[in-house]
Amino acid sequence: MGQNVEIEDFLNYLEAAKNYSQLTLTTYRTDLEAFAAFFSSLDEGLCWENLDADVIRRWIMQRMEEGISPVTVKRGLSALRSFYRYELRMERVKVDPTQRVVNPKTGKPLPTFVRESEMDFLLDTPDAFAEGYDGEQERLVILLLYSTGLRRSELTGLNVGDIDFGRSELRVTGKRNKQRAVPFGDELRDALRDFITHYRNSDPPTAPLFRGKRGGRMTTMAVYQNVHKHLSLVTTQKKRSPHVLRHTFATVMLNNGADLEAVKEILGHESVATTQIYTHTTFEELKQAYKKAHPRA
Known about the structure:
By secondary structure, this protein is mainly alpha-helical. The protein has helices at about 5-15, 20-40, 55-65, 70-90, 115-125, 130-150, 150-155, 185-200, 220-230, 240-255, 260-265, 270-275, 275-295; strands at about 165, 170-175, 180-185. Helices cover about 55% and strands about 5% of the residues. The protein is elongated and about 85 Å long. It starts with a helix and ends with a helix.
């Protein structure tokens, strides 16, 4: 039985007995035929029955060197594992070489963030926000998220009395009702003071800092819609959520020399290991800068 004939037989089995979707079958076919073409190009005498784990490893290495993502390479290896399990049941092979092959490490995706220049443009452009109360509140929400790294649930939970202007700190209630103090700078201090003076001056300390359309506490969905709308003005990246501004805050802090432990405390992370992913982001930035600047990069 030929190599592609065996692939066809396997795919027919998946469709009839396992009810696999056409998309999955097409993906399996692409990966298996690509591997068959690879090992045939190495040695015409190779076939499904006599190739070993080294051949599979060479295929994985070649794909990685071609720039194919680890996730896609892992998907191809998964198809190959399924194929060999079937071949063993059909007694067409005596051993499964995929058992001696380790999956490539996929790693965690790096956090998405907005560049400092893009945030500066958004916050410094007068026409980016509407005039009056709605526009001022929308801008303040984005400035606060960018300046403090708060989660959107933490932002909506802020009350007027949670602002300490004397210490330039916010009293924030985070996960599991754990409270922490978050510092802020002069720009946010002035923006908060102006906003409270104009719109919250008569409110008690327990009143919500940010209100929704109906007068109650602003919802997390309203925060998301605000951020998504305004980030769309300065970036084309797919993710434009409040959490992106949290990532952006951490990245900006570390890029500008902040201590990792200090950023951990501000963000309210339980472990510094959670915060360390942002050092990976900054290192990626350094690598890109190096490639652009160094003549031998």
